[in-house]
Every structure is written in C-alpha cells, then in structure tokens.
Design a protein that fits this description.
The complex is a heterotrimer of chains A (537), B (329) and C (133). With 329 residues, chain B is mainly alpha-helical. Chain B has 13 helices and two strands; from the N terminus they run ααααββααααααααα. Chain C is built from seven helices and two strands, in the order ααααββααα. Classes of the chains: A mainly alpha (537), B mainly alpha (329), C mainly alpha (133).
C-alpha cells in the first residue's frame, strides 16, 4: 500500500498541537496524496446531466470552472438556506464549544484541525457569514467571515470529501448540529460546479444506467447469482433457483450490489438466498432495482432521489406486496429517513406482514420496507429457524455498528440478537465505540476509494483500535457488520491494524449455522473453509 | 483568535458608559434610552431570527438516533433517545434543554503509545449547566427590581441562593458559581488547544461581556456599595414605563446597565441565538418514525429518473438470452 | 412559515416571559418610598444631620452597621469616630434607633421597597410600633 507501518502512522498524530497559523491563514490547501480522491470523469457527469461536465483533475491549477462559479455557489447557498431548516439553523447557532472536536475519526486519525467537525463546518459557515449575515458583512475576518475565492473553494472540496457523514459529532452536539447534513449540502454546492470525485460519479452513472453501482448488467447478475447457488449446492447439497424479475412475488428483495461482487459480501448474498429458500419465501430479485445503496446521496438530494426511485417503480411493476432490504449502511439511512418522503405515499404496496410468522412490522407500515435484520430476528424469535451454533465455534465475534443504521435509524438490538443466536462466542467492544457512539469504518459516503488508503487507515484507526482491544483481550477474530461498505473497507483496515481479524456480514453467520431441511452433512462454511471439527475430513 | 480584540471592545464599552455618565452626564441616555432600545432590539431581533428559521422548511425527517429504534414488540426501545412518538420527542427536548443531555455524553479522546483512549469527560457539561442555571437564577433574582411587591417565589429563590448567610449583604452562591463557570469557559478557550484554535472574537466577546456584567454587579453588591433604593426607583420606572433618573446613582451602576443592554441588543445577531435555535434543531425535535408515518417535503419536485422501459430497451437482448423475463418480447 | 403554530406558540411564551418585568406591574400604582425623619428626637435637633452624610448613609449604612456589630461584640470597641471627628456610641439601639425610632416608617420603608430582609432583629429587640420604650 505504500503506507508507513501502523505504529509510525499514528505516532506523529498530536491532537493537542495546533498549527501556529490561524485556520483562515493556511490557504492554499495542500492536496496531500492519499487524502483526496481523483476527480470525476466528464463522461460520468454528463451521463446524469450534471453541470460543468469535464474531466476534473484535482491537482490542476485551473479547475475549469464556469466564469460565474462564485455566483452559482452563493445562489446555491441561498437556495439551500431557504430549503433546509437544518442548514439554516446550523449555520447560525454553533457556539464553538468544541464538544464535537475529538469525536471525529478523521480528526483523531489525522490530527488535522480542519477535520474537527466544528471547523469543517466553519469552512462553509465563514462563507455564509460573509454573504448572508450582518456581522459577517460588517466585521469580515473579525466576524469570522471570509470571501469565497478559488482557494477557499479548493479547501471546501478537500475537506468536505474528508467527511464520511457518519453523524458521530451530531450525537454529542448540544444543539444537534449535524455535520453530515452540512457535508451533504456542501457537496451539493460543489456538484453545481462539477466538482465530484471519480469514485462517486462513476458508480452514480453506472447505477443510473444498469441499476447498480458496479455496472452489473442483467445477464451478469443472473449468472452471478447462479454461480453462488452452485457454491451453495456444493456446501449444502441443496439446489436453489434464484427468482429474478419474477412478477407477482410477495416480496422484492434489494441489497447493495457490493454483495454480488466481492468477498466477503458474496457470502452474505449466498446467505440471503439460503435463508429465503429455507423458509420458503416467495420473493424476487430485480436486475434493475439491483442496488440498495445510493452514491447519488453523496452528490445531491436530487441525484439520490433519481437513483432510488427505481426501487419503488420496480416494486410496482413486479406487483410485489412489500420489500425487504439487505444489510447496508447508507442505503438504510436513505430508506429510513428519506425515501418515503421522496416517493410516498407508497399506497400500492401492503403493510408488511411476515408470511412465515405473521408478525406485522408496525415500524415499516408506511414505507413498506423491512430490514433483513428485523425480519431475521423475528424469524429466530418465533423459533422458525434451527441452528447448529457449533459451526461458528471457530469465530470469536464482535459487532461493528455501522454509522447510518446506528445514528440514522437505531438498529442495535436486532443484529445482536441474531448473532447471539447463531454464534457461541460474542464479545462487545468498549461502550464508547459501539451503538450510537460507534466509530466509522473510515470509508463511508463514497470515501472507500483506493487512492485515499492513507486517509482511510487513519480514519478507521479509532474503529480498528477498539477491535484490537477485543482481539487482544478475548481473541476476537471476526468483525460482524450489516453494511456493504463495511464489508469493502474493513478487510484492508483489519489487515493493516489488526491482522487476523476477518470481516463478515451477519447473514453469512446465520446461513452458516442454519440447519436446512434436506441438507447433507456440512463440512464447509460458506467460504468453503472446513467447519470446526471437520478439518481432517 | 481575537481574544485581545474582544477584551478591548468590552473595555471600550465600559469606558464609554463611564465617560457618558460620569463626565458627560448623559444619565438619561444610559438609564432610559439605551435600555429601552436594547429590549426592543432583543425582542424584535429574536422573533425575526426565529421566524426566518421558521420560513425554512424541514424537508426530511432526520433525527440523530441515540438509542434502540422502535421495531419488534419484544425489543425494548429507547423512548427518549430515539423517540417514535411526539411525547417521546417532548421528553427528549425537555432533557436536552433542561439538562443538556447531549453534552452529558461528552467524551475525551487521547492517543497514547499508538493507542486511542476514549473516556468520559463531564467538565464541559458541568461548566455549562453551572453557567446557564446561575445566569437564570440571577435573572430571576433581579425581578425584585422590576416589581413593587416582590412575589414570595422570588424571595424564596433569593433566600435559598444566600442560604449560607455569609457576610452582609449575604453572598449569593450563584455569584460565586457563575464566576467560576465563566472562568472555566474562558479558560478552556485559552488553554485547550483545540478550543483555542476554533475560537473567534465572537466567542470571547460574550464571555468578557458577561464577566463584565457579573463583575460590576458583584462590585456594587459587596464592595463599592450603591444606593439600592434609588436604583430601584430607576428600574421600576422603566418597568412602569414611567422612566425617571433619580439622583445619586454612580456610574458603576450605569456601566452594569449598559453592558446588560449591549448583551440584549447583541443577542439576536450572535451565536447566543442557540437559545432559540436548540428548539428548532431537526436532529433533535423530530420523531424517528419516517417508516411509520410519511414526512412530507413541501418543496419536493419530480425528478428525471430512468424508467424500466429504457433499461429494458438497452438490455432486452441480453436479458432474453439469459432467460430473464421481459415486458416486451 | 413551517410548523407555524408551534413556532408562534413558542415565541408567544418567549415574549410573555421576556416582558414579565413590564407586564407584571400593569395597573398597579407606582409608589415611591418616603422614609420619614420626623421623630421627636430628630425634631429636637438643631442641625438635622446623621453621623455621616446622607448619601453615604443611603449607600453604605449596611457596611457601617456590619462593622459596628464586630466592634461592639467582638472587639469591645464602643466608640465610633465619624469623618467629621465627632464621637458616637457604637450601638444600634442607643444611637441609631434613638433618632430613628420609627422603624416602620424609616427602615422598613426602603427595605420592603427593595425586598431586603435584614436580620438585625433576629438578635436585637424589634422596636414596637410608635417608637422604642
């Protein structure tokens, strides 16, 4: 990776030493390799009609902006002030108490003061003051205000693409100021000028065209699922025929496309299919609604809505009754807090009722989408599933709460209940690092690009540090989670900070322990590794 | 940044009031005109600011959830930290506003020997509570200057505050507590490198201003002594809208009154508006129930999105070849 | 405005609280304290003069009395030398109250006005209405 050794990486971080120059005086910002994503490609921006589509190179002196870029940004701020009470209030009421400062994983991992949530927000707030407040207009710098110029714009870009919108700061803020919200809006402003990253704009364009971030076309999706089913047959002896675009199925199942593509997400996808097969669920995959995640959410509200709309459209077309969503982080933030507002009222679907247990999912009665963990926990509670927990006995498990389901939803007990029912060895990380206080994986909100590995390793340090603690204390070797981004970002993070800990989706653990009707004697887990006690066979 | 500037401005304000009253004798300006103007600016400015916020809609229901969600009936959920009902939200807001619940969670992160340590850190919470409640009690105590007959409840607060009966006039606990809290809040802006780095003149200014107010108040009560009866004649005159400027009030009082007026007038234009803003914070004042009850965005507009038909048109051949059902053969 | 009625209700509460100092007095008479110095003892005086100047006494009598308490009860010092050189007996009852025998019309007039409750009379015998003795 070209990174220094872990000890060296963090030893230079000093959270108490601030630069000698005041933050307004440190421009122009230095684009440090490993800290910024590559710029967006023109063709990807153009495909989804984003403004100022051109190949954007971050380190170029000239960003090739429209002549009236300043006006566009100021007008953009004005419009968002009038549209979002969050943004309006958050721009005005911060008292700079500093409670958020050391809550940000990027500040902890980099020691860069502009990664303190308060200062990240001040970068934009200073511009807001200059153009929208009396104090800022009158007193300028002394009023905490500054002109918007190209260097300020570059700084905004650099730091608002160093925030994973994890909301940990928001939890501690006495006024609930949410840096995620500020980042979302700052990125909207930057996208007015075509200032996106390749890692975000590429998946957005893919998702628009093929329905998923990875650009998996329908036939490929089918063969991928069938390939997984072959593996399932090898492992369990059970042949599963995955239903695809099946009209009239009871349930549409949507999960992030990451689960169809890479290890260890694919084991989770196998798990979903095994679970649904075992309970005889009448469901279908959709090749178009083949993405629950939404990188559009990392560019603008509008783009997010444009991408997510297809899910309900597909539900309508396939005439399903309701929807189950797989394990994913920001996908659930979008579904839980936004999608119903964007698309609703969702009156063409039925209020979700588990066809197996008869449980009514009261909490999803309006948007008609149930989380797979809610669904599975209910199954387990009703004793529908039989488990051989010893199949997971080689796993000493801890659970990483993903940011979005934690602070944008509150999904804490369901996955824990599931894990405890399918694993014998479960240990929690320290209280300050789990549940609502959970630390980010370091790669959320479109920051899981390879070129920012240093930033990711730094940002993921607080999470890794807590894993290392339980690794050393209890021998934890498995980091369970319910997020596709986690499944992509945590493996390199663990390899770097805590080698010997592997990453696993919760449903993978479920399917591994689940005793299926008519299965052969299992000797392998879903990864085709020997089960504990079966190593010699 | 800007600690010196803020300090000099407050000193200048003090000097201004001193010269205005003691040397120029503009007592009625400082006793009547400025206080009335300040109250008017405060009330109108506060309302205007809140209405301005109110005009911005809340397009999405995005509470920061700080506990287990309401989901399956057998899972105990956090009714206060992750409310699913309006009543739960009311409780959440109550604890937020009266007990600074979010600040109570505060932790401190430190890196030692390549390891991260996160521990509880309640000092800011204690300091903030001490400051705000002392300030509130001091304000309530001052009501005795604005009413002919002091109601028993205010007298009770007064006697509790001077419970220890130390000295004469008896020392108010809140005077000591607010002094300590202010020094703590100022101290962390000076000595905590992170907080120092983020501080602006507008962070130091209200601190120095309030320190000035407390200092002049304390001086008048315990040390310099003033003609309280004359002062009450003045304040009561203000309250009755029959302003008078009694003889024999020294400039120390006028400095105190002027600093208070500045605080009031400055309030609506500053970060002090967090007092009103905390009520309007959508991450705290909304129930986490958007899957149960649809939240409506008033400015929602239709967006261009890709329809299945376009998708199928692009991939129909491949779909058919793979045996995936299609709409149009 | 959005959430209008909630915001207006909140603002109404705000305005009610903030204007309390003005509204609480509506319709009530505005009375000024008028401490009386018409006791027989004072009438007898040629030059009507307290032990210190009037302004000093108005502002500082509390400190003076507090120090007198210490002089008399702790230090046994019974003589107070005023700023004009005259000597007085350090005694609330025999010096102050001799002239100001009208506690109700003199002390209480202002103390009630500004809502202070001196604890002098926790130890000293409170003068009866109409003067001591």
């Amino acid at each position: 990776m070209g990174l220094p050794r872990p000890e060296e990486l963090i030893s230079k971080v000093n959270l108490k030493k601030m630069p000698s120059r005041w933050w307004m005086d440190t421009l122009p910002v230095e684009f440090k390799p490993g800290f910024y994503c590559y710029g967006a490609k023109g063709k990807n921006l153009e495909y989804v009609n984003f403004p100022n589509a051109r190949d954007f190179h971050v380190t170029d002196e000239d960003w090739r902006l429209p002549d009236d870029w300043k006006k566009i940004v100021i007008e953009g701020i004005k419009q968002r002030i009038e549209r979002f009470r969050t943004f309006h209030v958050f721009m005005d009421i911060c008292v700079r108490c500093g409670a958020c400062a050391d809550k940000c994983h990027f500040f902890i991992g980099t020691g860069d003061p502009k990664n303190m949530p308060v200062l990240r927000a001040e970068l934009l707030r200073s511009v807001y003051r200059k153009y929208f407040t009396t104090g800022g207009k009158l007193f300028g710098r002394n009023g905490g205000a500054r002109d918007l110029d190209i260097n300020v714009l570059k700084e905004l870009w650099y730091y608002f693409y160093q925030c994973t919108e994890c909301r940990r700061c928001s939890l501690f803020c006495p006024y609930g100021i949410d840096t995620a919200e500020i980042t979302i809006i700052a990125r909207e402003l930057l996208n007015l000028l075509g200032l996106n990253t390749d890692w975000i704009s590429g998946p957005v364009a893919n998702c628009y065209r093929t329905g998923n971030h990875l650009g998996i076309e329908p036939h490929t999706m089918k063969s991928t699922l069938e390939f997984m089913c072959n593996d399932i047959e090898d492992i369990t002896g059970i042949k599963i025929d995955p239903p695809i675009n099946k009209k009239g199925a009871e349930i549409l199942f949507v999960t992030p496309s990451g689960d169809l593509f890479a290890d260890p997400g694919i084991y989770n996808a196998m798990g979903y299919m095994m679970l649904f097969h075992e309970i005889g669920l009448d469901y279908t995959w959709s090749t178009f609604a083949s993405e629950g995640g939404n990188f559009g959410f990392f560019t603008s509200m509008e783009m997010a809505k444009r991408l997510h709309t297809k899910i309900y459209e597909e539900a309508k077309r396939l005439k399903v009754k309701w929807i189950i969503g797989g394990e994913c982080g920001h996908m659930w933030r979008v579904w839980h807090q936004y999608h119903n507002t964007w698309y609703g009222p969702v009156d063409f679907l039925e209020e979700p009722v588990s066809p197996i247990t008869g449980t009514k999912f009261e909490n999803a009665k309006s948007n008609k989408i149930v989380h797979i963990s809610e669904f599975t926990a209910d199954l387990i509670r009703h004793g529908v599933l039989k488990f051989d927990k010893s199949r997971n006995d080689n796993l000493i498990v801890t659970f990483h709460d993903s940011c979005n389901p934690s602070r944008g939803m509150g999904l804490f007990e369901e996955p824990r209940y599931i894990i405890k029912n399918v694993c014998n060895h479960f240990y929690e990380m320290p209280d300050e690092t789990i549940r609502e206080q959970t630390f980010c994986c370091g790669g959320g909100s479109g920051l899981n690009a390879g070129e920012i590995m240093e930033l990711r390793m730094r940002g993921g340090f607080p999470r890794a540090n807590a894993v290392r603690y339980v690794h050393e204390k209890f021998g934890v070797n498995t980091l369970a989670n319910i997020c596709a981004i986690d499944r992509a970002t945590l493996p390199p993070l663990m390899d770097y900070w805590v080698p010997g800990v592997r990453v696993s989706g919760v449903t993978e653990l479920v399917a591994n322990a689940m005793i299926m009707k008519g299965e052969k004697e299992r000797t392998m887990n879903l990864r085709m590794e020997p089960l504990p006690g079966k190593e010699e066979e | 940044m800007g600690i010196g500037l803020a300090f000099i401005i407050v000193l200048g304000l003090i000097l201004f009031a001193y010269i205005g009253t003691d040397i120029l004798g503009l007592n009625s300006l400082f006793a009547i005109v400025i206080p009335y103007a300040a109250v008017v600016v405060f009330v109108i400015g506060f309302i205007r600011r809140v209405i301005k916020w109110g005009k911005s809609p809340v397009p999405f229901r995005i509470p920061t959830t700080a506990g287990q969600q309401f989901s399956l009936p057998w899972i105990k959920y956090s009714k206060i930290d992750n409310p699913s009902t309006g009543f739960g939200v009311a409780l959440r807001m109550f604890f937020e506003i009266f007990f600074f619940r979010s600040l109570f969670r505060n932790t401190k992160a430190e890196i030692m020997n390549g390891k991260l340590f996160v521990g509880s850190n309640k000092w800011l919470w204690i300091g903030a509570l001490a400051f705000h409640y002392s300030f509130l009690i001091i304000l309530i105590r001052h009501l005795r200057f604005f009413m002919l007959q002091t109601p028993w409840c205010i007298s009770v607060i007064d006697s509790i505050d001077s419970f220890w009966q130390i000295g004469l006039p008896m020392i108010y606990m809140t005077d000591i507590i607010i002094g300590a809290a202010l020094l703590y809040l100022l101290g962390r802006r000076i000595f905590n490198p992170q907080v120092k780095y983020i501080s602006l003149p507008s962070d130091y200014f209200p601190l120095f201003l309030i320190i000035g107010i407390i200092a002049t108040g304390v001086l008048m009560r315990y040390f310099a002594k003033v003609d309280v009866t004359a002062i009450k004649e003045l304040t009561l005159g203000l309250a009755y809208l029959k302003p008078t400027v009694p003889e024999g009030i020294g400039s120390l009082f006028y400095i105190h009154l002027f600093l208070v007026s500045v605080l009031f007038a400055y309030f609506p234009f500053s970060k002090l508006m967090h007092m009103g803003g905390v009520f309007l914070s959508p991450t705290r004042n909304l129930a986490n129930n958007n899957r149960m009850e649809r939240h409506v965005n008033p400015w929602d507009y239709p967006v261009k999105h890709r329809h299945y038909e376009e998708y199928e048109d692009e991939f129909r051949d491949k779909m058919k070849k793979a045996g995936i059902p299609v709409e149009k053969e | 405005m959005y959430d209008g009625w909630k915001i207006i209700l909140g603002l109404a509460v705000f305005v009610v609280i903030v204007t309390l100092p003005f509204t609480m007095s509506v319709g009530k008479d505005y009375v000024k304290p008028e401490p009386k110095i018409d006791t027989p003892e004072i009438q007898k005086m040629e030059k009507k003069q307290c032990i210190e100047s009037k302004q000093y006494m108005r502002e500082t009598h509390i400190k003076l009395l507090y120090s007198w308490k210490d002089y008399a009860t702790r230090e046994g010092k019974r003589v107070y030398i005023a700023s004009d050189g005259k000597q007085y007996n350090v005694s609330l009852q025999n010096t102050c109250m001799k002239c100001h025998s009208n506690k109700e019309k003199f002390c209480d007039e202002c103390h009630n006005y500004v809502n202070v409750k001196p604890y002098c009379w926790d130890c000293h015998i409170e003068p009866k209405v109409g003067g001591l003795k």
